[in-house]
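Slide 14.
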Amino acid sequence: MEESIYRILAENGGQIILTFLIKGAFSDIKRTIKGYKDVELILNDQDFEDKVIVEVKKTFTWASIDLFKNHLDNDNIYKRYVHLDLYLAPRRQHFSRNEIENKKPIKEVILADKSNLAILGQPGSGKTTSMKYIFHSILLDPSFMDGVYVYPLIIRLRELNKSNSYLGEDQHGGIFEKLAEIFGLKTNLEKVPKSEQSKIRKQLIRELIPSILDNLKVLLILDGFDEIGNSSLRDLVVQEIKELTKSLNYVNFIITSRSADFPFQIENIEKLEISEIDDDQLKDFSLKFFENENISDKFLEELYLKTPYKDFYRRPLLLTHIASIYSKSKEIPEKPKLIYQTIINLILKEWDEMQDVKRGSNYSKFSVDRKREFLSSLAFNLKLRYNKSYFSRDEIALVYSSICSKFDLPPDNFDNVIDEVESHNGILIKSGYNSYEFSHLTIQEYLVADYLVRGGSIRLEINELLLLPNELAIAISLSSEPNILLFEILVEKILSKSFNLGFILTFFNRISLEKPDFAEEAILGIALLYTYSKFVNIERDPNSDSKTRYENLEGRKRFEEFILNGDFLEVIKKVQEYYTIDNEKLSSNLGEYIGLRKKKNISDDLLRMRLPKYIISNPKFISAFN
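Slide 15: predicted structure.
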């Protein structure tokens, strides 16, 4: 690998330039050391050059590999990277939706902006991958940074959680100590009074490091501020980057972090945030992932058809996960609930484990399942109380106060818990000024549905149920008894009291997308025909106005398509076990229908009590009746 690093540098004219810069930097190191009485440098010029190259080699290996291989087992980031854009202000600072359009490509921002950058993003938004790409590009393409930077240097800030070899066992250092370790800046301070040694060493390092970075034309990348586990270490790093903003003369640095973990406003650091990928970037991703235009087109076609995923594929990590599933199975699973469950587990557990980071949290002792319970309860109560996707901090606090005791969380610890929830898993994010949202609408809906199913039975009033057409459809798909749950929701709870056309159409549209594991049982067919009866009753009602009748007619046609296209005719056929065709003819000026009357000799007492006495069918539905 070391030979390949020299080859890369040589092929791009970088070896001569870097060697020249290294010699200049080392001369400055010796000149600075001479200014300190009784301080001896334990480092020669060749050792210094070797240290620089070794660090390039080590980082090059790490930056070359993506966590996820593509369709052809290719994990080369440089070839696969999709160029992302940056919001020119973090989303949490957006006062208007129009600000979402105010963005530029990452490379353009780095070159055009003379400030140091804090590049923020939600979990899985591509922060680290973008830094890997920038590292590669500076080495492989001399024109990439127009000569402004020659040598990229990445410090993975989570490594600061480990002890620093230059400081001794179990001692942690910040950015300056890490750079001193990288560059091999060992000194002999035996002639310096012991009481002064620590102070002199610290002062010397803070003078040497900015000089080295300037001389080597280093683009310093500090990746993953959110991955620093120790609060005092975070405070130290914040102090050090403040120092770097004042001591660097010719180069700048980039620090990356999850958005929620970097609330600081620091002079000469511009905060930007990675935007969600657009349609062009999505196509670019697909082609690079599959390296086959035909497969790529088929993947995108199916992805667009799977509308529940439309808010998943705007973040690179989740998009990659879906593409990986498609790569292995040649299809996106027909059951979206499998994707929901996989992604929730990915966010709550798998991603943090792959990152090898244990984030401190008041609920860190919770199992993945318990965390999901808490988030499901939070999502459900927010939805029911406010019925919207965006929430203020005060609104979340009010809901938190009503559920915290169920999870043994302190009532007065809301600020800590909600900030930790935001930074810990990225499901609930700060999306604007005093505005929060779930990172994916579908994830929010899934969590609400998860809460409903975990409750065992749905104990909600009719007005509450009507707020949840999507969530109830997902709950049915999650249920181990989807037929019974659909019957209970529609026949016993909603349609017996109200017929809301908007709810019904949204509900069944989502049912068609979620594809619950329905069994071919009569109770499902009865629920469908009972729903159909409500359409017909409005159509035959002389008091219905023309607008209501027109909307109802369009809705009935859509519901008929749902039954006919959803292979429910065999289920409806089983209805004859409990119903017989009524001799009375039913008609309206829009069509003819068949009435079905409940049999008297039903052996199942419980079922006999629950079934509606009379339901209506379209003749096409019961053509297979004996």
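Speaker note: The radius of gyration is 31 Å.
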